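Please fill in the sequence for the structure shown.

STRUCTURE ENCODING:
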């Protein structure tokens, strides 16, 4: 029944080769939070992987904080 989750400065760094498995695991777990309304991923290194990370969400978020995240055009297309 989690409504809000803050993961600022998380250790997700898509520049590391081994991160893909961890990113898929995190995405699957986020997808299980079917009542999540607010998500803060500020200062995370998720460039180009926003669709992979948030694509499993079951309901739309009311608030998504991505402060200091370097987003690529594909991330904005997904949003």
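FILLED IN BY: designer on duty
SEQUENCE:
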């Amino acid at each position: 029944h989690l409504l809000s989750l803050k993961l600022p400065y998380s250790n997700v760094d898509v520049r590391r080769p081994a991160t893909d498995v961890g990113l898929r695991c995190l995405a699957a777990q986020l997808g299980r939070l079917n009542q999540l309304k607010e998500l803060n991923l500020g200062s995370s290194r998720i460039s180009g992987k926003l669709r992979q990370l948030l694509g499993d969400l079951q309901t739309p978020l009311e608030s998504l904080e991505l402060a200091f995240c370097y987003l690529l055009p594909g991330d904005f297309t997904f949003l």
